[in-house]
Design brief:
The protein is of the alpha+beta class. The chain contains 15 helices and 13 strands. The longest helix has 44 residues. It starts with a helix and ends with a helix.
C-alpha cells in the first residue's frame, strides 16, 4: 500500500514537472525554437548522411556480389608501350592479352577450378537490310548466361552442339534488337556481320550487371573496354564460330597503312568450387600469368577482395559522416547549455521562492533537466522527421538509392536526448546551488 502511494506521488510530481517545463518553454517560444534548431540539424544530418552512405555502399556491394563470390575475372589490357608506338610500318601487329595456353595451365595446375568462361570481344557494325548499329560482338560459350547472370527476354541461348558445329547463330541484347528490328521480333531472322549472316535465336535483357563488371574492373586499377558497362549494344555468338569466321586478328585502317590487333581472349571468368579457396586460387592464377606474360597485359579482379574493401570503405565512410554529424549535435548541445544558463539567471527569483516554499535541491535539478530533455527531445523528433524526408527527396530528385535503417533514427534521437541531459546538468546544478535568501533578493 505504501509503495503504491509513493508511485502515485512520483507520477504526480513528474506530471507537474513536465507541465511546468512545457509552460516555461512555451513562454519563450522563439528562443526555444532557435535553441532546438542545433539539435534538429544535427539529428537530421546524422540520418540523411547515413542513409545516403548506406545506399551508395549497398549498390556498390550488390554490383560486386553480382560478379560472383566464387569467381576470378581475368581481362586483357593493351599495354601502354603499345599505345605509344610510332607509325613506322605499313602493317603493325599488336599482340597482347590472355591466351588459350593460360586457360589450359589454369585448368591443369590449380585444383578446385570448376568452370571457365572464355570470351573474345570486338566492336563491329551489325546490319539488318538498311538498318545498322555499332555493337560489341562477344564470342563465348553456352554456359555464359549462368556464370554472368544474363537473363533471356525471349528465345534461347545457343547450345554446345551449335558451338561444336560452328553454326551461325547469335543472341542479341534488347538494345541491339530495338536498333535493328524496331517493328518486329528478331527471332528467326538474320543479321549481317562482315558479310557473314547469323540467325537470331534469342534476345537477352540489358542487365545492370554490366556496370558492376566495369566498376569492379576500375576498382582493380584498370579495366578492359569490353563487357564493362559500356552503352554499346551486344551480340553473342559461339566462340568456335567466331574464330572460324573472323579469326583472332582485328584489322584497323590507319594513316600509314593497317594496324592489326591480335587478342586470343578478351576476358576469362574462372569459378572456384570452394569460396574459401578463391583468394588462394587468384594468387595462383596471378603467378601463372606473370610467368606466361612478359608485359602486364591483363588484369585480375577478385570480387571477394573487392567486397571486403567495399565493406571497409563503408565503415570508414560511416565514421566520417557520423563525426561530421556529431559536431552538429555538439554545437546544438552547447546552444542548449547557453540558453539554460540564461534561463537560470532570469529565473533566479523563481528558484528562490520555490526553495523558500520547501523545494529541495534535487527538485530544482530535476526541473531544469526536464526542460532540457524536452527541448532536445523536441529537436530530436523534428530532426528525425526531416532526416527521413531528405533521403526520400534525394532519391526522387537525383535517382540515388538511399536506405534509412531503423537504427539510424533511433540512434540519432537517443543521442539528442543524451546531449540534452549532459549539457543540462551544469545549468541545473548551478540553479540548485543558489542561496534561497540571495535568490529572493535578486531583481
Amino acid at each position: 500500500m505504501l509503495s503504491s502511494l509513493r508511485s502515485v506521488a512520483h507520477a504526480r510530481h513528474l506530471r507537474r514537472s513536465l507541465a511546468l517545463g512545457l509552460r516555461s518553454l512555451w513562454m519563450r517560444k522563439l528562443r526555444s525554437l532557435l535553441t532546438a534548431l542545433g539539435i534538429v540539424f544535427g539529428v537530421c544530418s546524422v540520418i540523411a548522411m547515413l542513409a545516403i552512405g548506406e545506399g551508395a555502399s549497398f549498390e556498390a556491394q550488390e554490383q560486386i556480389k553480382n560478379l560472383g563470390s566464387q569467381n576470378v575475372i581475368l581481362k586483357s589490357v593493351e599495354p601502354p608501350e603499345a599505345e605509344d608506338r610510332t607509325e613506322s610500318e605499313t602493317i603493325y601487329l599488336n599482340q597482347f592479352g590472355l591466351t588459350y595456353r593460360d586457360i589450359k595451365q589454369i585448368k591443369e595446375t590449380i585444383p578446385g577450378v570448376s568452370v571457365i568462361v572464355p570470351t573474345r570481344t570486338f566492336r563491329e557494325r551489325l546490319w539488318n537490310l538498311t538498318r545498322s548499329a555499332e555493337c560489341e560482338v562477344h564470342g563465348t560459350v553456352p554456359w555464359f548466361p549462368s556464370m554472368k547472370n544474363l537473363r533471356l527476354k525471349s528465345g534461347r541461348f545457343f547450345g554446345e552442339v551449335e558451338m561444336q558445329k560452328r553454326v551461325n547463330v547469335c543472341v542479341l541484347d534488347e538494345s541491339a534488337a530495338r536498333s535493328l528490328f524496331p517493328l518486329s521480333t528478331p527471332l528467326g531472322k538474320s543479321v549481317r556481320v562482315r558479310g557473314t549472316y547469323f540467325r537470331v535465336v534469342g534476345v537477352s535483357e540489358t542487365s545492370s550487371r554490366d556496370q558492376a563488371n566495369g566498376e569492379a574492373g576500375n576498382a582493380d586499377s584498370q579495366a578492359a573496354d569490353e563487357d564493362n558497362g559500356s552503352s554499346a549494344p551486344r551480340m553473342f555468338v559461339p566462340l568456335n564460330t567466331m574464330l572460324e569466321r573472323f579469326g583472332d586478328v582485328v584489322y584497323e585502317r590507319s594513316a600509314g597503312g593497317y594496324n592489326a590487333e591480335k587478342v586470343e581472349l578478351s576476358e576469362v571468368t574462372v569459378k572456384v568450387d570452394d569460396a574459401e579457396r578463391v583468394v588462394g586460387s587468384a594468387n595462383a592464377i596471378r603467378h601463372i600469368l606473370e610467368r606466361n606474360h612478359e608485359k602486364t597485359d591483363y588484369t585480375v579482379t577478385v570480387p571477394v577482395e573487392l567486397l571486403r574493401n567495399a565493406e571497409r570503405t563503408k565503415q570508414i565512410f560511416n565514421i566520417v559522416l557520423g563525426s561530421i554529424a556529431a559536431i552538429s549535435l555538439l554545437v546544438g548541445g552547447i546552444g542548449i547549455m547557453n540558453i539554460m544558463l540564461a534561463n537560470v539567471t532570469e529565473r533566479t527569483r523563481e528558484i528562490g521562492i520555490r526553495r523558500a516554499l520547501g523545494a529541495k535541491r534535487a527538485d530544482i535539478v530535476f526541473q531544469f533537466l526536464i526542460e532540457t530533455v524536452l527541448l532536445s527531445g523536441a529537436g530530436g523528433v523534428i530532426g528525425v522527421l526531416l532526416g527521413i524526408t531528405i533521403p526520400w527527396v534525394v532519391s526522387k530528385a537525383a535517382g540515388m538509392l538511399t536506405i534509412v535503417s531503423f537504427e539510424a533514427p533511433a540512434l540519432a534521437f537517443t543521442i539528442s536526448v543524451l546531449v540534452g541531459i549532459l549539457f543540462g546538468i551544469y545549468p541545473a546544478l548551478k540553479a540548485s546551488e543558489m542561496n534561497p535568501v540571495e535568490a529572493l533578493r535578486h531583481e
